[in-house]
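Extended Data, panel c. Modelled sequence:
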Amino acid sequence: MGACGASPRRIFIHLFLNTRLAGTIALVAAVHLLGGHWVVLQTVAWSGMFAAYTQDFSLGAAIGKTFDGGDPCSLCDAVKTGRDQERDAPFAESNTKLDAVLTKAVALASPASAPSTSLGDVTKKKFPSAVSGPTRISTTPFSS
C-alpha cells in the first residue's frame, strides 16, 4: 500500500480511467467543433435510405438511389439546411468591455534574519507608477 492508503494498482486504474474519460471528452468536443456531427447525421440518413431501398430494389440499385441525390430523405434535407445555416452564420462579435483595476503593491514583512529591504522600496525604485495608487484601465476590443 502507498502512503495515502491506496494500492499502486488502484491508483493506476483510477488514473487510466480518468485519462481515458478526459481523452474521450476531448475527442467528442473536437469532432463536434470540426462539424463531425453533420457527418454522423448524414451517415445515419444514408443508412436509413439504403435499408429502405434494399427492400424494393437490388443491391446495386439501392446504392445508386441512396447516393444519387435525386430523392433525399427528410433527414438529408435537415442536414443540408443545418450545414448551410452554420456556414452562412456570421461570427459573433464581442461587445464586452474589459475593466481592470490595479492596486498598490503589498509590502510583506521580512523575517528578522533577512536584510531590511522591503518590497515597497524596490517597487518604488523600479516602477514608481505601480505604487502611486489605484489605477483603472478600461479597454474595448477592436477599438481604434
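The mean pLDDT is 76. This feature is highlighted in the accompanying rendering.
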